[in-house]
């Protein structure tokens, strides 16, 4: 069975359009009257769960409700974008676009975010960067839920989640030729999965990639053989979500839907929105009703879920389904004119995303490197790059997607003043000052304030750990870099549009609302500036252009950071956090919504706080562990 699934996935990965299967439904009249499991969202985690449930329970029916279509959705760095324009350019039909409210602490800038609106979700359109978190991220999750969650059989520390990272992907080691050409390193013991979700190293690197890597090593940054096994402080090679034979994107729509779409108990309803969940008998038990809206004719209908409703609609849309169901903070629901069913203040709270400033330089003695991204401005080279991408196997610049090399550095390994920053954060957790940095409506919710204090305490210890990364700096080419803040302290919100509950939610990032975030940004930038003092960068006469050598004082660096800040690196999370209810949590370790029976959340909205990684691999791992939890609970 596995061999046939892998073979089928290989064939499908080479296609630019997905075929339509009998199990794809476009009208509720084509559905059963009821399903055992109804899953809201056909993205990375939702399709993972659907695949595993339909396999484990062939006599139970599974329905996935997806806002988008079964279609090819152009990825963030696919043709016709040149160089790296995809992340901010206009997107196609397979993508949601969101724009946050202005952020007063960052020049009133707004965060631009896109997410997948297609079968496969964001795994079908993202930058394909497929790194894993540090083991200390997941140990911090467990600490944030301790002691309340200690007795749960479901453990979310590194030991508890690592087997699901391994299960979630089939990794292919680099060929001898690519190792010799590019210097790739890996350790197969960090993997071991056997599933049609694939990762591998790309068959292309820009010629100047070696410059940054050499400079980082000269800075004393440890060169890691493998960063997917939990130990991530250092210089890492990062695999992509890429099938190794075709060198094309591997995503959940292919691996967890297309390759198993022959199962008669697994249906997908496309072009529909999950509106809300209802308990028809007035209690939080028994069968549930799910209200749906057709995006084609705006007709509403209800379906029965006999076993569970599983929310996998993402950090922005999962909270809106709960809100429309009457589940959330009483004050938020009152403002929206929705009757309260369950007072759960953590819904839509705790929003986080990776952000960071740019840093740039120029070369006064440039090397003669080829090929370079500037070659993409040559119409002949660009045409060849597009043609190479469309071949089987694909080759050339577009197979690299975003990047596959980065440093991950802890705060103690960046600055001797790390204890000062950590002490500031610890003080916030103990002296009551933290509430001043939270959204105003948190003041009416003691559980949210208590949960934030718990998070600050845990993150302070995390940041003091010399093995726990505080920043990521990915690099592919050129004379600039983005400096990620991996664990922001500021918290935003996702709320319903009170004028149109079915519209896209109101997203308020509140970036920089906790001033300690800027302390971290400054420490990161000051550390990275040392790169220009390395022999490699001196060899090419590197000169800083942003912020420039004249900008030295911390106050001036803060202003530069605000000016050059990217507010979102497309990793929103944490808006239905796995925390105790009395700490503003929305789900427990079994992923059930607090206070409800038979409703679970299985996407990245359950993260208590951000991880030291892009969120795609974590979404797969959460989906795998969620499926295992659900299967075990129903086998009992």
From TrEMBL:
<dbReference type="InterPro" id="IPR007867">
    <property type="entry name" value="GMC_OxRtase_C"/>
</dbReference>
<feature type="signal peptide">
    <location>
        <begin position="1"/>
        <end position="18"/>
    </location>
</feature>
<dbReference type="Pfam" id="PF05199">
    <property type="entry name" value="GMC_oxred_C"/>
</dbReference>
<comment type="similarity">
    <text>Belongs to the GMC oxidoreductase family.</text>
</comment>
<dbReference type="InterPro" id="IPR036188">
    <property type="entry name" value="FAD/NAD-bd_sf"/>
</dbReference>
<dbReference type="GO" id="GO:0016614">
    <property type="term" value="F:oxidoreductase activity, acting on CH-OH group of donors"/>
</dbReference>
<feature type="active site" description="Proton donor">
    <location>
        <position position="571"/>
    </location>
</feature>
<feature type="domain" description="Glucose-methanol-choline oxidoreductase N-terminal">
    <location>
        <begin position="116"/>
        <end position="139"/>
    </location>
</feature>
<feature type="domain" description="Glucose-methanol-choline oxidoreductase N-terminal">
    <location>
        <begin position="314"/>
        <end position="328"/>
    </location>
</feature>
<dbReference type="GO" id="GO:0050660">
    <property type="term" value="F:flavin adenine dinucleotide binding"/>
</dbReference>
<protein>
    <submittedName>
        <fullName>GMC oxidoreductase-like protein</fullName>
    </submittedName>
</protein>
<dbReference type="InterPro" id="IPR012132">
    <property type="entry name" value="GMC_OxRdtase"/>
</dbReference>
<dbReference type="InterPro" id="IPR000172">
    <property type="entry name" value="GMC_OxRdtase_N"/>
</dbReference>
<dbReference type="GO" id="GO:0044550">
    <property type="term" value="P:secondary metabolite biosynthetic process"/>
</dbReference>
<keyword id="KW-0732">Signal</keyword>
<keyword id="KW-0274">FAD</keyword>
<feature type="active site" description="Proton acceptor">
    <location>
        <position position="614"/>
    </location>
</feature>
<dbReference type="Pfam" id="PF00732">
    <property type="entry name" value="GMC_oxred_N"/>
</dbReference>
<keyword id="KW-0285">Flavoprotein</keyword>
<feature type="binding site">
    <location>
        <position position="274"/>
    </location>
    <ligand>
        <name>FAD</name>
    </ligand>
</feature>
């Amino acid at each position: 069975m596995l061999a046939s699934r892998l073979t089928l996935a290989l064939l499908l990965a080479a296609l630019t359009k997905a075929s339509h299967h009998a199990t794809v439904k476009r009208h509720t009249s084509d559905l059963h009257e009821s399903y055992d499991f109804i899953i809201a969202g056909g993205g990375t985690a939702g399709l993972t769960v659907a695949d595993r449930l339909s396999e484990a329970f062939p006599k139970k029916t599974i329905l996935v409700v997806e806002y988008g279509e079964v279609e090819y959705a152009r990825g963030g760095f696919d043709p016709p974008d040149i160089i790296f324009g995809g992340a901010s350019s206009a997107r196609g039909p397979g993508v949601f676009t969101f724009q946050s409210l202005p952020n007063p602490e960052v020049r009133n800038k707004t965060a631009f975010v896109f997410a997948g609106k297609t079968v496969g979700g964001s795994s079908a359109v993202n930058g394909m960067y497929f790194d894993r978190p540090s083991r200390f991220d997941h140990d911090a999750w467990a600490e944030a839920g301790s002691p309340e969650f200690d007795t749960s059989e479901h453990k979310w520390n590194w030991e508890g989640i690592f087997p699901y990272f391994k299960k979630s992907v089939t990794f292919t080691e680099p060929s001898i030729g690519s190792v010799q050409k590019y210097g790739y390193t890996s350790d197969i013991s960090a993997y071991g999965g056997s599933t049609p979700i694939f990762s591998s190293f790309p068959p292309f690197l820009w010629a100047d990639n070696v410059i940054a890597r050499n400079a980082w090593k000269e800075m004393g940054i440890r060169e890691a053989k493998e960063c997917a096994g939990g130990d991530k402080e250092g210089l890492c090679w990062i695999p992509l979500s890429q099938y190794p034979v075709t060198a094309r994107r591997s995503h959940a729509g292919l691996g967890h839907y297309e390759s198993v779409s022959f199962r008669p108990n697994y249906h997908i309803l496309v072009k529909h929105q999950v509106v809300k969940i209802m308990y028809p008998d007035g209690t939080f038990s028994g069968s549930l009703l799910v209200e749906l809206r057709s995006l084609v004719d705006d007709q509403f209908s209800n379906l029965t879920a006999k076993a569970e409703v599983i929310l996998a609609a993402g950090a922005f849309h999962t909270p809106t389904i709960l809100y429309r169901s009457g589940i959330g903070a009483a004050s938020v629901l009152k403002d929206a004119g929705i009757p309260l069913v369950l007072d759960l203040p953590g819904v839509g709270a705790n929003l986080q995303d990776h952000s960071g400033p740019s840093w740039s330089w120029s070369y006064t003695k440039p090397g003669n490197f080829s090929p370079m991204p500037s070659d993409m401005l040559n119409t002949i080279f660009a045409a060849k790059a597009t043609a190479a991408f469309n071949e089987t196997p694909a080759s050339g610049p577009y197979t690299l997607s975003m990047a596959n090399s980065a440093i991950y550095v802890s705060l103690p390994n960046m600055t001797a003043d790390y204890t000062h920053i950590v002490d500031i954060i610890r003080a916030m957790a103990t002296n009551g000052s933290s509430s001043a940095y939270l959204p105003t409506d948190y003041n009416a919710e003691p559980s949210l304030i208590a949960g934030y204090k718990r998070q600050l305490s845990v993150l302070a210890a995390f940041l003091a750990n010399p093995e726990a990364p505080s920043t990521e700096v990915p690099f592919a080419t050129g004379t600039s870099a983005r400096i990620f803040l991996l664990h922001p302290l500021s918290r935003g919100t996702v709320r319903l549009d009170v004028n149109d509950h079915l519209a896209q939610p109101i997203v308020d990032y509140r970036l920089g609302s906790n001033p300690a975030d800027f302390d971290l940004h400054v420490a990161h930038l000051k550390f990275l500036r040392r790169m220009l003092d390395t022999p490699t960068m001196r060899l090419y006469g590197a000169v800083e252009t942003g912020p420039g050598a004249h900008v030295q004082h911390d106050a001036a660096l803060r202003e530069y950071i605000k000016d050059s800040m990217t507010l979102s690196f497309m990793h929103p999370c944490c808006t239905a956090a796995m925390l105790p209810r009395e700490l503003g949590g929305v789900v427990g370790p079994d992923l059930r919504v607090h206070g409800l029976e038979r409703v679970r959340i299985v996407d990245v909205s359950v993260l208590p706080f951000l991880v030291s990684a892009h969120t795609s691999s974590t979404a797969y791992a959460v989906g795998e562990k969620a499926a295992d939890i659900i299967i075990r609970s129903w086998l009992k």
